[in-house]
TrEMBL record:
Region Disordered: start-end pairs: 62-87
Domain tRNA/rRNA methyltransferase SpoU type: 144-286
Name of the featured protein: 23S rRNA (Guanosine-2'-O-)-methyltransferase RlmB
Coiled coil: none
Keywords attached to this entry: Methyltransferase, Transferase
GO process terms (BP): methylation; RNA processing
Length: 302
């Protein structure tokens, strides 16, 4: 088979196609330890993060050109196996697939079955799911950690990862009901940053024990706290805990392993009494980063 005439996967009943469709289910992803990624930017982020690429699926009709200001537009008549001459992300991803011999071409009908949602993003890729146990999480000195407690909406999880990446968080830990970080909506709303930040998943008790054993101070974002954000010390190794917009943290994360957990509140000056969790996380994290950067600058001056 020549590179100009790739084998095209056409049957929706093909075992590979049926397996890919099943991978859209969280339980199947966990059982098979695989995940699917939609989009060139997100696929490149996963490759750059060192995830093991096991399949790159391109449409037979050609490679759609990603655009930043509008949904992807389809280019018809192009050889799906040829590197793209305009967007460097496409060339890098395709070359990575060729070098690992994971490039596959599928009919448009098959692509419609394996892609997520109504808005096709140009490519579907399959990766081996990384280990997200607490044991594998290695934290640097003076780590800034974000803990997400019971965030069940994948879009919120992805948006928080995006904020965490922008604010320079060292790790994100998920606990409670929201632990499906490879939901397609989570990946999409994170813009692929979900692959770039070290992360782990565990139950509340195990996460608390892990952080305290690492000598990381815990601070919980609570609307009922008397301690305002601007009065809170975010120096040293610290973990910021946030809950869902609907339920907050409730009675959780007040004590852990015999240690009282300090609360922090974002002051509200308008009529609303809450913010979306990604906005709340961003406000707290950037204040933490501001304090830490200022302390570093002051230390260098002296």
């Amino acid at each position: 088979m020549s590179e100009s005439e790739p084998l095209v996967l056409r049957s929706p009943a093909n075992p590979t196609v049926r397996r890919l469709v099943r991978l859209r289910d969280n339980r199947t992803r966990r059982r098979e330890k695989r995940l699917l990624v939609d989009g060139w930017r997100e696929t490149l982020q996963a490759i750059d993060a060192g995830l093991d690429l096991v399949g790159l699926f391109l449409p037979e009709s050609g490679i759609p050109q990603p655009r930043h200001d509008s949904p992807p537009q389809k280019r018809t008549g192009a050889n799906p196996g040829q590197a793209h001459e305009t967007d460097p992300r496409i060339s890098i991803v395709i070359e990575a697939a060729k070098s690992s011999q994971t490039l596959r071409v599928v009919s448009d009908a098959v692509m419609a079955k394996i892609a997520y949602g109504e808005s096709f993003r140009g490519v579907v890729s399959e990766f081996v799911q990384p280990d997200h146990s607490l044991d594998q999480l290695k934290l640097p000195p003076n780590a800034l950690v974000l803990v997400l407690d019971s965030l069940e909406k994948p879009g919120n999880i992805g948006a928080v990862f995006r904020c965490a990446d922008a604010s320079g968080v060292d790790a994100v830990i998920l606990c409670g009901g929201g632990s499906d970080i490879y939901n397609p909506n989570a990946i999409r709303s994170s813009l692929g940053t979900i692959f770039q930040i070290p992360s782990a998943v565990g139950c509340e008790k195990d996460v608390a024990r892990f952080l305290i054993e690492q000598n990381i101070r815990l601070v919980a974002a609570r609307v009922e706290s008397s301690q305002e954000l601007w009065e809170t010390d975010f120096s040293g190794s610290i973990a910021v805990i946030v809950g869902s917009e609907a339920n907050g943290l409730g009675p959780r994360w007040q004590h852990a392993e015999g240690v009282d957990i300090a609360g922090v509140r974002i002051p509200m000056f308008g009529k609303v009494d809450s913010l979306n969790v990604s906005v709340s996380a961003a406000v707290v994290l950037f204040e933490a980063k501001r304090q830490r950067c200022k302390a570093s600058i002051d230390q260098r001056r002296h």
